[in-house]
Amino acid sequence: MNILIDNKSGAPIYDQIYSQIKAQIVNGAVREDEALPSIRNLAKDLRVSVITTKRAYDELEREGFIYTVAGKGCFVAPKNLELLREENLKAIEGHLEEAARLAASCDIGKEELIDMLRLFMEE
Fold this sequence. Notes:
Layout: H1 13-26, H2 39-46, H3 50-62, E1 66-69, E2 73-76, H4 81-105, H5 110-122
Antiparallel strand pairs: 1-2
Helix pairs in contact: 1-3, 2-3
């Protein structure tokens, strides 16, 4: 598992860990039921507090991306297709919002933007 901490980023470290692990789960880089690094080992490798890595893991577990087995560690949860769909919908909405903002700044109307989207959907 590859996680990089950007100290210049405005994002909290736990959020960077959370986001990167979540992205690797969603895109299939880590498989269902695969063991994650222990909280302590990850903290040591990243040179961050154990509390920081625990917070990231807790958030991932709360959202259903990982599960914990007492005495054995944390594992990637079976993919919840509805959860993944929601995640993708949020990402699509964000991209569409940005496209609408860019279109407005270039005086591109709704119909022209919709036509552009139709062209992409046909490819």
